[in-house]
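Field reference: sequence -> structure
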Amino acid sequence: MRAFRFFIFLSVIVFSVKVFAQKEPEKKQPRILILLDESSSMIEKWEGGKPRYKVAGEIILRLMDSLYKLNDQSEFALRVFGHQYPVPEHNCYDTKREVMFSKDNYTQMSLRLADIKPLGVTPIAYALKEAAENDLVNEDQYAYSIVLLTDGGESCGGDICDVVKKLLDRKIFFKPYILSLVDYAPLRTEYACLGSYLQVVNDKDIPKAIDSIVTSFRPAMTLTTAAYKKFLESKIPAPSALQINIPTVKIKTEEPQPEPVKKVEVPVVKAPVPDINNVATHKTTEIKEQPVKAPAPTKVAVPDVAKLPEEPRVIMVPDIKALPKRPKTYLAMHYASESINKLKVPATIAMQPEPKPVVETFTKPTPPPPPAPKPKPVVKPKPTPPTPKPKPTAKKEEPDNNYVITTTDAKETLLEVYFEDSKGNMYHSTPQIVLSDPRTGNAMKTFYRTVDAKGNPDPQRIPAGTYNLTVTNGRTHDHNIEIQPNKDNKVIIQIKNSSLGFEYSPNKKRPVTEFKALVTMREIGGRQETQQCTDRIEYEPGTYHVSVNTFPPTERYIDLDMESEAVITIPEPGWVQITNTNPLGKATFYTVRGDQYLPFHKMNVDGVPASQKLRLQPGPYKVHFIKDPKMPLADETVIDFRVNSNETTEVILK
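Structure field:
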């Protein structure tokens, strides 16, 4: 009896040890959020003449490529701030998640980065808050990390450290990395509470920064829980059944049976099944086999799981059986109604004679012949059909069927889409194209028209058939394009240029007569045009830099899609009047650029108010001056002021 209790006790221990050994620490899917600064200062040039925002995009793609090599299942997302509202609006809530978390989204990320352009201010703290509340939401399932790329600090008064303390704690597996594109020492202190600060001010710094991030993220790319990391560092091996059975030696010594102990040496080799009643004859290896044969706890767990799906099935069976009863009664009524059709027929006949006499009254009188003049009005609408003739022209505007299809033999069915203008020039644009079923309108295939270095589109594999082709701007260019099987089908579509115009905000009816713009295509040898802001000029699709000679200048980046009509809005200007009647000498005006104030104009304050008036764009400004011109080395005095549209702001320098 005592041996049997010991056997039960030992089997429970061995089973629990086995369950413990099978439990693996939880593993989390790695997710990296890219937080990108697209404020207006990112337009500034980086080393080598590249705009900072272009360099930031290259770093992001290189970082993704390096992390994919560690774990191709990693998920990336992109949140951008400062790219939706211009600086004069000073919108401190300007942030948006542009790319969702997903696997293998390198192409999506690159296309989105190519479209986003710098524009506004720098609400970093608010962007971090939005990321914590809306992007890093499933920290129990995913291991989150953040990489911030910027060229400056907070410009909206937000407290980055407070956001980190309140919202990002326990949500990020690794402290964020901050990649600064400028060499500005105070930024290192500002971001100290957020994470690791790295300067990337030249090409040599890029691989170093990426290597630092990849090295730190390497654990997150494999097993990403802190508990599992500590478990590996401890290096404590799981207890085995042999080690737990060591106490059995003490129990053997309590049994005063020396003779059976000697006999055990022979039967262990010859007899595979030992005597259960003789504890002394059991070795640890034999005891280990017995609890495995009787995993009682597993038998209890299996029926519990199996019972769960049975309950809803029992509930659903009566519902399914009950449903046919209703159709049966309905069929019975239907058959009964058919049997009474004889009674219903006269009823219907009784209802029909009522219109019949009405028909007779219309046929008997002679008014039908007088309607002979009615065909005359029918002749009158005949001139109206010529009016629908322009309708086909309207149809030509929606589906432009000016295209040519050429085919060459191929091993599979391929499609190449070319865009050309009336002069035969090919476009390098990469819009999204949708092929849909002409009958149902359902999308059959959606893809981006990528091109190689020579501008030739990459072939797309599609089933043979007839399709409607629609470009991203929603315009159906071609109907009923026939794709032949086992051919390389080259569709050459003739398209029209885009147009660019300007208008005031919010007064759109007021013509922009005061300004003109320099429009430059962002390609080597691209077109450059000086455009009056009252004109609308056509441009071929592409990315353009637009500089309007407002004061200070208005800078815009704009993507012109094919056959689109783009409009750039400009806030109506205001005025600042320096009212001093005493001469002060030079005064320097500063405007907001990103997260800092930069000088843009110097005025000679000579004491004549008529010469001390400036037309400025709406927004905040600063003016620096020295109170006493006789003391040029004295500290400057700074006055803040704000200009509103169609208003004059008076400032006295004192």
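Note: The mean pLDDT is 74.
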